[in-house]
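dude i think i finally got it to work??
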Amino acid sequence: EGRLYTLNLDNGEKKVYDYFNNTITEAQMHVFGSTGLKIDSLKVNYTSWFFSNQYFTLNGSDTWQYTFFNTTYNVIGLPGGTARPITPTHISENYMTVITHEAYGSDGINNFKYWSELGFSKSGTSCTNCQPDIPYGWVYDGVWSYNGNTNSTITGTKWVVVRYNNGLSGNVYPNDTLDFITDNTYTINNGSPKNYTISNVTGNNNKSLSLYSFSTIGGDYAGQIIGSYLTDGQINNAQFHDLFNVNNTVTIWMIKL
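look at this
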């Protein structure tokens, strides 16, 4: 079982959706676009989680370490250096409910904070109608459906990094080409696919762009770019910071091909 909670940050509306019904059996927890991470993909009667000796196993195959602190499990070491906090809200002999993947996104009109509530049955058992009641003040709005592409308009475009400056080496002119081949993967100079995310920024018209394994500047970096970057065809003087050391910043200039 799975539910999606959305808090509209512009008008305060609180809505709850089901992820699944009799015909819809697959969903993505990153609901405005996709991270491309396996842990964010859900499939009824297939998705499985196993916790043992500080290791988390997904669907019986992919394994990552986890930490535990103050009732929350934190799966670490996911692609791109990301993590997934998982907080159990109910555990019985055969059933578990968790809250996970709290995030922010936009449908192009409003900005949202959202999170997922998932129900798991113990392997070899079943549980019918075990989901907790919807909290007071939240409105049920059916099965989640979102077909927009607001956060991935960069998909299908190519950009040349014409200059960057990290404050130490001065201006560098790499002329590397970034090709955003899907909603969550890109290549550098036609190399192997790497992950990226792009989303709206609450409170302004900018976009937040995260580029993982961004070898042009040597790591995983994220920064804000002006919202009109596509029509302008250029990204000028955009400051990106190292996701693992915010003190490392690089200023980047790119031109759309």
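The chain is about 0% helix and 55% strand.
im so relieved honestly
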